[in-house]
Amino acid sequence: MRIKGVMTAVLAIASICTTAADCQIVYNQPGTSALKFNYSNWNLSPESGGEETISQMTLGLSGFFPIRDNFEARYQLMSGFNNLDYGGEETDISGLGDLRLLFSHSFSKDRLLLSAGFNLPTGKKELDTGGERQIIEFLSMDFLSLPMRRYGEGFGFNLQAGGAAVLGPFKCGAGVVYDYCGSFKPYDGVGDYDPGDVLSLTATAAAGSGRMAYTGDFGFSYFTTDALDAEDIYRQAPQFSTRLTATLSGDRVAWSAGTRVILRGRNKRYSLADGAIDSQLKKYGDEYDVFLRAAFPLHDSWNLGAMAGTRQILESEEEFGRSSLLNFAVDLGGNLTSRLGLDLGLMYYTGSADGGDIDIDGFQVSGGLRVSY
């Protein structure tokens, strides 16, 4: 039972260890720092009875500073506190995540961008295999929207290359990212876990006509095999994603609508006894999202937004049924002074998971301060 529990814990980490990074160089952009607060609360009510509640409070620090012309750096650091009420017992976990750095340089009149990013292992590791492991398993649930899903990892780096061009009416871009993920000890008493590396390909296109603007992007990610104490245990399936967005800019309101599709393949689990493939099943189902948003310009630089959307996650092949969620949000943002900005947001979620066997609802409150210098 202990080996099975440890494997479940490690695979929960594996399911959330993909790296996301973005970079963009804007001419004469001032340096900025941002401090963001977020509180999320989710209630799960299974038909079998009982109620499970998980809450998360995070504080994130991020920033951008220009080093010189066409050369910039970005950083991000997040800390979080999670509380889980499961089966009438409460557990919690708190600590820092890893520090992420990204350096970017543009060439050829901003048509080519090269970047190097680093994951510095400042976050909390060697979690206990009891309550803290259970919280990580909840954080890995795909139907829960949470800003912080993991704590400390190993040293890692990523290399990125991208290019942009104008092709007729389209502004196009393409990029490739290689993520190296170093080994670390996720849980106390567990060996070295080495997440697989990731190779990601992206392509974007944008076009406009009058007050209408259209954007689309495509992404493909390929994962190498995860290992525990140098033994293969898991391989995440390749993943394809696409997003399409249309925006109508009016005098009093700007409308935007979009959709996102994520297609996932079958993951592989390996036997620790002989290295053979134990199973090839989808851990998470394919996903389809749709949203509609309205933005209202207010006095000076302030904007008020309202959004409604739906998220549909199809049944997995392992053990979890279909999830269906609706979300509604309002946000307010603007500048308090020429150098200080404020962002506020509130989002509400409702729906069901596991083929309707679990009723879910949740909310998220966020606030942030932006300082330019």
Number of helices: 2
Number of strands: 22
**Could you tell me how far the N terminus lies from the C terminus, measured between alpha carbons in angstroms?**
55 Å
User: What's the overall geometry?
Assistant: globular
Major beta sheet, specifics?
A: 16 strands, antiparallel, barrel
Mean pLDDT metric: 91
The helix content is under 10%
Oligomer: single chain
The assigned structural class equals mainly beta
Biggest sheet strand order reads 1-2-3-5-6-7-8-10-11-14-15-18-19-20-21-22
Model regions low in confidence, pLDDT < 50 over at least 5 residues: none
List SSEs in N-to-C order.
HEEEEEEHEEEEEEEEEEEEEEEE
- Alpha-carbon Rg, integer: 21 Å
The proportion of strand residues reads: over 45%
Outline the structure in words:
6% of the residues lie in helices and 61% in strands. It has helices at residues 2-14, 131-139, and strands at 32-46, 52-68, 71-86, 89-96, 99-107, 112-120, 156-167, 170-181, 193-194, 198-209, 212-223, 226-228, 231-235, 239-249, 254-264, 267-270, 277-281, 287-297, 303-313, 323-335, 340-353, 358-372. A 16-stranded antiparallel β-barrel has the order 1-2-3-5-6-7-8-10-11-14-15-18-19-20-21-22. Strands 9-12-13-16-17 form a five-stranded antiparallel sheet, with helices on one face. Strand 5 (99-107) and strand 6 form a beta hairpin. The model has no long low-confidence stretch (mean pLDDT 91).
